[in-house]
Amino acid sequence: MELKKNVWIALLSLLAFSGCGTFSLQMDSKMTQSVFLKNLQPKKTIYLVKTNTTSVDDNIGFLVKDKLIEKSYEFTDNPEDATYILRVNTVNMNANRQQNEARAAAVTGASTGIVMLAAKGAKDGVGGAVVGAVVGGVFAYAVADGQVRMQVDVVITEKGDESIDYATRIIAEAKQVHLTPEKGQPLLEEKISKQIAGIFL
């Protein structure tokens, strides 16, 4: 009787979770190294180099440029005329997606097993702990599948009496149940571009 009760609790938990797409969006962005520009130049001219070594296009370069123009920075096509050289490379965009899709296939089969087990009244003697573990796996996958990640390398060369190079990596993540890369990427691009522009006063 107790086993059957555990099965139904697990089943209800699974069904409840599958419909809880209203979880609030959570975003986080961290720099591996803080950057503090030392020789603050009166001339605000930037030469921007934007590259992308992923298979996904992004708009970070355009967003960074727009935000710095709002701060009265000017952009030049000649690095010799620039007081700052800003290099931005998108390194990673949602690299765990394929792994999550593989987990999804396995979990789908497991969750189907829960439904069948509940319908049979748990007569096969499968322990409630096992059922709970399966539901835990479903929950873990659903959360992971709703995570979109982006990593961007930033190198700034600050010209002065001596040129100074600064390097950091920005790692950003958005989490929400059922969040897709298509919906999450623009959010991360906005957050990362704001953080890059924030380095410049």
What does this structure look like?
The protein is α/β, with parallel strands linked by helices and 201 residues long. The chain has two domains: 2-21 and 97-145; 26-94 and 146-197, Double Stranded RNA Binding Domain, CATH 3.30.160. 43% of the residues lie in helices and 25% in strands. The chain contains five helices and six strands. It has helices spanning 2-18, 60-70, 97-119, 128-145, 181-197; strands at 26-31, 45-52, 74-75, 84-93, 147-158, 164-175. It has a six-stranded mixed sheet with strand order 1-6-5-4-2-3. It starts with a helix and ends with a helix. Residues 14-22, 102-123 and 125-143 have low confidence and may be disordered.
Our estimate of the beta-strand percent is 15-25%
Number of helices: 5
**What order do the helices and strands follow?**
HEEHEEHHEEH
- End-to-end Cα distance: 67 Å
Keywords:
201 residues, six-stranded mixed beta sheet, Double Stranded RNA Binding Domain, single chain, alpha/beta
List the helices and strands and how they pair.
Blueprint: H1 2-18, E1 26-31, E2 45-52, H2 60-70, E3 74-75, E4 84-93, H3 97-119, H4 128-145, E5 147-158, E6 164-175, H5 181-197
Parallel strand pairs: 2-3, 2-4
Antiparallel strand pairs: 1-6, 4-5, 5-6
Helix pairs in contact: 1-3, 1-4, 2-5, 3-4
